[in-house]
Write a structure and sequence with these properties.
heterodimer; A: 310 residues; 11 helices; 0% strand; B: 206 residues; 17% strand
């Protein structure tokens, strides 16, 4: 790892130590009486430690490990999505193609640096293949709905997520060999925005911003969280090919996209009658609960950087 | 001697593929004698239910399975008899003098718990088929055992009928509150009540 990556992880480590200390003090102040908010906060902080360590190990192992890590992330996200969106028996061939064909091929294409194909593989080829496979069962019940669910799951959980490791394929003049930092920048800014929206919402939140779709999000959390994390994004300009004001604007854009992603994914959850996508990350819910904002931010971030910096 | 290894292999595979989340909603995973009765939509049902139990309960919990399916090959016979210590019953009932429930009653009298599927056959649609009367006769002849409803969600999507490759979708097993045959309750009322108790555990979105 180079010195900038080490500094980034050192900074995250310092923030987590601080967060764990605050969590411990809050816990001690309750004097053993159970407090759901504080217990959930501590569970979230502990899960962050695990996630940062896993990402850190992948960074230390190099680009292949990072691509594999996001492959796994996509797998868990796709599994949560398709578990919650019921399909019928005749969708089996389409689901097999989703898990055993589209998912590995998309990551193989990214590993082999084939931009021309990985950017259209799922939106074009798989988009056409899935309804063909679904039609083989000869079952017309809810056909469009079923075909759309599998396609949507692949777009969100595989296509969109894969644009995080796809950042490794960009050739940015003067930024050679540092593309991992671009991944770190994207993930840190978007995730910090989630965290700061949660913190600002818990501290100052009064007016709900989308009561029917995502009842926990507030106007105060939205403004405070996105502003603060965009400023942090600006302050992290030295890890990127951007200058400070470019870095601020890009951070602002991906934070707004991330916020919108949270609202959209929450609308799907509420329609399915659940609060969380899954249970694999203690305190956070499922993989998709942690990832919804990244799904929406990653492809746009990728294309922005590709268009203006390569 | 390889049976525990094979058992661990099969249950860890079932848990990895399905995420096997157990929700003990109406009772705790404690070693009391029980008849777990569950919805049946896949050949993997008893494997997942068995894998959802803690190790110490698995040892004396035996799946009840149809001999017509499990006696047809040496591998199936090995798995059901040696690995899962299953109780095989004759669903076709060639000899009418035999009480088809006798093997289950023998297992219960030996102190074991049972896993049964009172629909009697795999249900390929949503919801539940009407229950066969076996559950009623077991509850009547052996009232000591708790009757625990268990809803297995999503496994029919993981392994649809006639497909070989499982899909890695998440499955949940929900254990409900124990039931008992009530004083003077007739067969139809009992079967309806137990069926409703099982249906009540089904998640809304399935």
């Amino acid at each position: 790892m180079d010195s900038q990556t080490l500094m980034l992880f050192g900074g995250i480590g310092a923030i987590l130590v601080l967060a764990s200390l605050i969590g411990l003090i809050l816990k001690l102040r309750t004097r053993g009486s159970p407090n759901a908010v504080i217990d959930n906060l501590n569970a979230r902080i502990n899960a962050w430690w695990v996630m940062v360590v896993v990402i850190g190990i992948a960074f230390w192992l190099g680009t292949g490990a990072v691509i594999l890590l996001f492959y796994a992330v996509s797998f868990y996200a796709l599994r949560e999505f398709l578990t919650l969106t019921p399909t019928r028996r005749s969708d089996y061939p389409a689901l097999v193609a989703a898990f055993y064909l589209a998912l590995p091929l998309q990551y193989l294409l990214i590993y082999s640096d084939w931009y021309g194909l990985f950017s259209i593989f799922i939106p074009v080829y798989v988009f056409l293949l899935l309804p063909i496979l679904a039609s083989l069962g000869g079952d017309s019940t809810h056909f469009l709905e079923r075909a759309s669910k599998v396609q949507w799951g692949l777009m969100i959980a595989v296509f969109c997520v894969s644009f995080v490791p796809a950042l490794l394929t960009l050739d940015i003049p003067g930024y050679e060999g540092r593309n991992l930092l671009l991944i770190a920048y994207l993930v840190i800014v978007v995730q910090l925005s989630d965290v700061l929206q949660y913190v600002c919402g818990k501290l100052f939140g009064k007016r709900k911003i989308a009561p029917n779709l995502s009842p926990s999000k507030t106007v105060e959390g939205f403004v405070g969280g996105i502003l603060l994390s965009s400023l942090i994004g600006a302050a992290l300009w030295w890890t990127t090919p951007f200058n400070p004001w470019q870095s601020f604007l890009i951070a602002l854009l991906i934070n707004l996209l991330g916020f919108a992603g949270g609202i959209v994914m929450s609308a799907i959850k509420r329609d399915r009658g659940v609060k969380d996508w899954g249970h694999m990350i203690e305190g956070h819910g499922g993989m998709l609960d942690r990832l919804d904002s990244v799904c929406f931010a990653a492809p746009i971030f990728f294309h922005l950087v590709r268009y203006w910096w390569t | 001697m390889f049976e525990p290894v094979v058992a661990t292999l099969i249950t860890s595979m079932a848990r990895t593929v399905t995420g096997a989340r157990s929700l003990w909603l109406g009772c705790a995973p404690v070693p009391v004698q029980r008849i777990y009765f569950a919805n049946h939509s896949s050949h993997g049902d008893f494997v997942l239910l068995w894998a959802s139990l803690p190790q110490n309960l698995r040892k004396f919990t035996r799946p009840v399975a149809g001999s017509d399916y499990w006696n047809t090959s040496a591998l199936r016979r090995y798995i059901i008899n040696r690995v899962f210590n299953g109780v095989l019953i004759d669903r076709e009932r060639k000899d009418p003098v035999d009480n088809p429930l006798q093997p289950m009653l023998n297992a219960l009298e030996g102190g074991d718990s049972l896993i049964i599927f009172p629909e009697g056959t795999r249900n390929l649609e949503d919801g539940l088929l009407p229950f066969k009367s076996g559950l009623y006769h077991l509850a009547k002849s052996y009232p000591q055992a708790e009757l625990v409803p268990v809803w297995i969600a999503n496994l029919n999507r993981v392994m649809p009928k006639g497909r070989v490759l499982p899909l890695p979708l998440l499955c949940t097993t929900s254990f409900g509150a124990p039931l008992q045959l009530e004083e003077g309750e007739d067969k139809a009322a009992f079967l309806a009540r137990t069926r409703d108790a099982l249906l009540a555990l089904a998640p809304e979105h399935s």
